[in-house]
Amino acid sequence: MIDKKFKQILERDKDLKKIRIHDLRHSHASLLINQGEDYLVVKERLGHASITTTIDTYSHLYPSKQKHWLINLMIYFKMEKIGNSTKTEKKRQGPKTLSFLLYRRPGSNRHVLADTGF
What we know:
The protein is of the alpha+beta class.
């Protein structure tokens, strides 16, 4: 019944992209994550029986804690960003491009590469 009503709404405007009602569920979860909600809130909103289901499905949308850690580390050591660098590695699954940020301490010629592939 809900699916039928949803299809009727989509048919009112031909410019609307035809999506499944289940896609709204994923959009809702994505918006919650984008707003910084915790896994447990997303789990409860979606009605998952286990937090594992939520993590397995949506963990790729959560920003990495490593990036936050890296920024704090660079601030602590008073490092400044001086550029970007990329490197392509050949893997069995295909090529993978790695991105790096270049940092240095003011007044120093030594550079630090920080992997940004999180």
